[in-house]
Amino acid sequence: MDVKPQYIACHDLPGAPPLPATPPDTSQATFDFLAAVESYPAQANPGASEAMRQYGENYYRALVELEGDGVMVATRDGVIIDTNEAMCDMLGLARAKIIGQPVSELPVTPESLEKSPWRFDWLSQGKVSVAERALMRPDASCIMVEMRMRMLSDGTLYLISRNITERKREEKALRESEDRYRQLFELESDAIFLIDNEVGQIVEVNAAASALYGLNREELMSMRNVDLSAQPEDTQRKTSGAHQQKGNIIYIPLRYHRKADGVVFPVEIMARSFIQGGRSVHVAAIRDITERKRAEDELREREERLRALAETLEIRVLNRTRELETSNVSLARSVAQLRKLAMELTQAEDRERKRLALQLHDHLQPFLVAASMKVSLLSLPLPAAEQAQAVQEVQDLIASAMSASRSLTRELYPPILLDAGIMPGLRWLADWIKDKYGVTVELGGEDSLEIPDTMGIFVFQVIRELLFNVAKHAKSNVAMVTLMMKDSQRLHIIVSDQGVGFPEPFSGFSNTACGFGLFHIHERLAAMGGMLDVVSTAGQGAKVFVSLPMMTDQLALDFIT
After folding, report:
1. Which residues contact 465 (CB under 8 A, 6 or more apart)?
2. How many helical (H) and strand (E) elements, i.e. helices and strands, does the chain have?
3. What is the pTM of this model?
4. Cα separation of 29 and 38, whole Å?
């Protein structure tokens, strides 16, 4: 059916539709022509029926191929039998891929079909189906089309599609722009007015304007701008030439307006003129400055009083400055003393732990071993099985005491920390936490990391206390510990978990649990020039960041003294 358009001389046929110089480019014109050809009374001029058929076919091909819309022709059953190049371009398919396919199999998105399903039942009733649908092309791009379908009396289906992608995009952008404008207009806390410059008529207002003046929108839009002013002459004079100042910003720092209840109050006005719908208008932002004006008046009064007392106040300020300087010196000394006390407390605790560890190791354990040996010797000659059982129980208890004393020794001051360094000590701590609480500790850090003994003990205690918190409160079976040294000057520690986190956003250390908890860690770190920070969200775990400067034992002693 690839017929090139040929205009034949059949314009004088009775009832024949006129053939324009250029085929129309609208789908409605195509439908109108097809309807006219269909209704042409062949019996009125039988000799012209063949010419009329040729005329219609040529005209049809001209419309199909020349107009920009996509055109499809289908049988009554919906099988596509013809299409034009515009439709092929829309679908991104060759004509051969389209012809023979059902109309219902066109690549329309499911969302479009749910909104606008195929209504073939309408077509059989002579109705025209018009719907907007989205087409999915082979390259995964999507275009919006307006589809118009109609069934002629012989059952032929005609479908004309117009690409409205750009129009829909522009409509969406316009709606979004209007929504943003309306939201800004209504949410602005200042009173906003749109005023006609020619007559001063109020054209539009926002909610803040109604609240400010005590009048509803309809009441305000029935008024002129001078009706709101307690200085109408000044308002009229200032805005009468507004149409000649298009684009210029008008600023009125002080004007008095009147509310619905008669109260006069000061306002600040910012306005700008522009052209809307062919008329000169201006938008004015009006702000109630009652409180600011009152504050300014009070400020002026205070300035006058202050001016009268300037000399006296200068003397007082100088005296107060000296007092503050003295207080600052005293405060600095107090801070230094507190830091010294905090360091002394830290070292005192360390010394006490060492002492307890040595006592347990040097006294309790040898005593228990000797007692166990003696009890074993005494049990040998006893004939009674009961006595042997009792002795065995004593041996078991002594053995348990020995084991407990060794464990206590390691808990108070693990020997591996002093013998092998911080990283082996932390690995021992990770194993101990796993055995004790069932929490797996993932340790990250260089094995070569070296920390002075005094600092290593403190770092070990801090990490141990943070892992205790994870085991007791986090409800997490995994914790991560990472150590990083920056420029050999500062140690950074991160202890994190994926547990329940803090019930509320962490806001400080003032109410943290007592003991060697977060509060004491924070205070001791501050005394040493370090810091501690907590990041936590309820249900999403917690991260504790520790940073402290590295000091040699001698520097630590110098800091204390």
Report:
1. 516, 517, 521
2. 20, 15
3. 0.35
4. 14
Strand partners for 286: 191, 269
Other C-beta atoms closer than 10 Å to the C-beta of 282 total 23
- Report the alpha-carbon angle 134-139-145, nearest 5: 20
At 320, is the pLDDT very low, low, confident or very high (cuts 50, 70, 90)? Answer: confident
From CA 450, how far away is CA 456, in angstroms rounded? 8
48 pLDDT higher than 60: no
**pLDDT tens track for 270-291:** 888 888 878 888 888 999 999 9
Pick the closest to residue 542 from 552, 530, 533 (CA basis). Answer: 533
Task: Provide CB contacts within 8 A for 444, sequence distance 6+.
Answer: 480, 481, 482, 483
The answer for residues whose C-beta is within 8 angstroms of residue 284's C-beta and 6 or more apart is: 192, 193, 195, 225, 269, 270, 271
Query: Residue 18 gets which letter from DSSP?
Result: P
**Cα–Cα distance measured from residue 413 to residue 123, given in angstroms and rounded to the nearest whole number:** 91
Asked if 493 contacts 463 with a C-beta cutoff of 8 angstroms, the reply is yes
Give Cβ neighbours of residue 482 (< 8 Å, ≥ 6 apart): 443, 444, 445, 493, 494
Within a 10 A sphere around the Cβ of 346, how many other Cβ atoms?
20
Residue 248 DSSP symbol? P
pLDDT digits 0-9 by tens, 391-411: 776 677 677 667 667 666 666
pLDDT tens-digit readout, 498-530: 888 877 666 666 544 444 467 778 877 887 888
Residue 503 corresponds to which tokens in the numbers above? 């019930």
Residue pair 380/417 in contact by the 8 Å Cβ criterion: no
Determine the length of the chain.
Answer: 561
- Is residue 552 predicted with pLDDT exceeding 80? no
